[in-house]
What does this fold into?
Amino acid sequence: MDRTPLKRVLKVINVPLLLVALALIVYGVVMVSSATATMGAHGAMVKRQLLGVLIGLVPLAIAAAVDYQTLTHWVGPLAVVNALLIISPRIPGLGDKANGATSWLQFAGHRLFQPSEPAKLILIVVMAAVISQFKGRIETSRDVGRVLAYLGPPLLLILLQPDLGTGMVFVAITMGMLLVGGLKPKWFLVFAIVGVVLVGVVLKAGVLQEYQMNRLLVFVDPSRDPAGAGYNLAQSKIAIGSGGITGKGLGSGTQSNLNFLPERHTDFIFAVLGEELGFMGAVLLLGLYLGLLVAALEVAASSRDLFGALIVAGFISMWTFQILVNVGMTVGIMPITGIPLPFMSFGSSFMVTNLAGIGMLLSVWSRRYGA
Amino acid sequence: MTTFRQELKSRFAALGIIVVLVLGVLLLRLWTMQVLQGKTFSAQAEDNHIRELSIPAPRGRILDRRGRVIVDNRAVLAVTVDPSDETIREIIARTQPKAEEPMTPAQVQAKLGAFSKIVGVPVDEILHRVRVSKLEALRPRVVALDVPMSVVSYLAEHESRFPYASVDVVAVRDYPLGALAAHVIGYTGEISESQLADPKMSGYQLGDIVGKAGAEAEFEAVLQGDKGYRRIQVDALGRPKGVLEQRDPIPGRDIRLSIDIDVQRETEKALAQALQDAHRQHFGKARAGAAVAVDVTTGEVVAMASAPTFDPSQFVGGISAKDWKRLNDKSSEYPLNNRAIMAAYPPASTFKVVTGLAGLQSGLINQGFSWDCRGVWTEMGKEWKKYCWLRSGHGSLGFTGAISNSCDSYFYEVGYKLYKAPGEKLQAFARSIGLGKKSGIDLPGEVQGRVPDKAWKKQFNADYPEWQTWLPGDTVNMAIGQGDMLVSPLQLVNVYAAVANGGKVLQPHVLLQVVGAKGQAAKKAETTVIARPRISQDNLSLMHTALERVTEDGTGRAAFRNFDLRVAGKTGTAQVAGKDDFAWFAGYAPADQPKYAVVVVVEQGGHGGSVAGPAGRSIFASLFGLKTEHVQATDASR
It folds into this structure.
């Protein structure tokens, strides 16, 4: 009886992971719809978000169907493609800059996608292949140097865009993968020290753009510049706090509908959720995230090889970091950075990347018993 | 390989712990914000998107006893200045006494000069109006009222030049009769910070217009009405998105006063005429006075005038600094004071009515008591002799003669008898007829006057032991209304009203009724007896006869010669240290069946018979609808 088609499908497909992902996507579309309700382009924006989901199903299916192990043969070309992707917005005729930091790839005046999103995915694959070569033991400085040689170029390029947010995501992804990949604990300490020193140098040297500096200063002292950078934070906190336990009701957020919340369908989508659905809605979302990440951990733990486990660890790190920074900034415990909330924020590039990630997780899951 | 598998598992566990920690921290933060501090944030969210605008309630009108409008409302175009505007804020900050970078008047002129010229208000006045009441920084300030349309359209066309200015329609008090009855109606103004702190004024906000004096202040609660409000939802740019809730204002109630505007007008005219008469009689310092007419059967005040007077319309839209200074200047004789109730004067010979009745009631004298006036009275000894105003002497006078001729010697003797009798009978009687305490009239600021006695003198001279003893001369002086005796014009008219109506001291009042929403009388004033002095009918009719003789062949005969109304009354000429004499007249009419009592006083006006008496005659004439002709009396009697 255990050869029924259903049992076979269940063996191949991680149903809890898919269900949680589906729930998150639906939740996200509902919130985007509510956040854009009083905007002129409400209908078009909801359609675009749904289109992103549909487009994302293609890489999801391909990634799930293809054996992820074949990717190990493509590390070199992938690293090059990634570098090209990252600098593509800088190429005349191809690039388009928006909001100071968000970079777009465009063709003939049409925005295609934000290259920084698939760049995260490619970075995960490249780093997984590099780190897995050490068989779970990264101890010597030579080993660390080889790993950093693959992180360094894309990180430097993304920072030069300048896209500090994605750069931080790159670092977080790599750190999570190094944890699973067996980096000796003392190296994390070294990284931490180097990181603090670097931040100090960057702040002193004035490398940051003025708006980035402002965001950081406002994070330290929210009363600073209440009409400018501090305004977003204050309005976001008011929105979430005023949601209370049960929220004001979907579509009834005054902070959201009356334009007090900036970027409410993208970076501050969580503030809309917090205002309209309250603590209950927030608990539901964090619960779904927990479900997603636990399901992903299970996939990682059952991977037949280190490469697969590292890929999954990369996505877990990426999602966890982006949840922390995005939700954290809306509640005032993280500085404001343009990092979107997985499956929730409006934007198809990130949605497609995330769905591709789900596809890769499924690929790892379905091949857990070896081929 | 198993050990590696296990080690890998512990690494996943570490990753899982990080995941749980991240989600846990976020959850904790959300718990504090949404569950613990939800109310605070909710209030902030409401502040964000809800604006509450109050809708002022139309203030009740003030009508005369026949329903004629004394105080009305009217809508006017007003130019307002927003004190939160950047330019204005800077000017205010830099013209403070200790400003860090003070602005010179020329710089202020450069910024506001053009605007000042257009609205026709001096720059200083604009700043004064914007600066007052620092607590409510956002409310636009009225700087000019009743601006012509040309100014309105100019400001509209040049909006960018004057971003702080806007034009509003505001309801203001209107005075169709001008300054008539100014002291009775009072005036309105912005609520002061001390008024706001008064628990009786709860529910008021800064910027509210409230009664500041007179009936406007006394009946504030009735006139004010209930403000309405409109809660408006606004978006992040402050654009209105809709009305969430609205409550219409409940208009204030009209009140009907007992004042008759015809009589009031004649009373004010008579008082002004009395001042002129005084000047013609070479009492050039006469500038102030008061006149009151009351209905002796009800206590209703039919007219009440005080000189000098003021124009309540000066207070509309906020009084200018210049006008306010002028009204409170020492040399102005304080026009805002209602002397009819706020001033206390020695009553002089008008008080002989009280002394006479006190003597009669105590049995110290009777109808037949007479005194031979030689022009000087020496009963307290040669060294304490006192003169009658008529130095040649009145000869032998009975009670009525002593009243009608206002003989001082006679009343010195009565006073001396009252002094010698136990129990301070003069003071007791004076108090029993309403002197020495407030009448309780429904107007703010009434004084209580003074009935001097042993206890008072001791306390008054607490620091001067040698002045503390009550002497015979004190009662003797008091008997002719001098010494330390003080009455307000209202108290005195109430004494004469009590004599006129058969001995009842009535509660004087100016409110006749509160007009209900449908025009009905929501609240009616009642006639209240506040005191019943013991006066026998015989003594009352003796007093009537004596007072009637005053206008027939006594000190009032010149003023009331050929008058078509029998008036009973008394003149008085008060001596005030360092000033010219104050002229008094008090009386009632018709003498046989009294209806109205009148009092006139002119500060430094000279003789009662020739200055106050003719004014009293004019007031009676208007009360009874007689031809008002001004008589010129040249009587130097008292």
Summary: The first strand of chain A starts at residue 95 and ends at 98. Chain A touches chain B through 46 residues (CB under 8 Å). The CA atoms of residues 302 and 368 of chain A lie 6 Å apart.
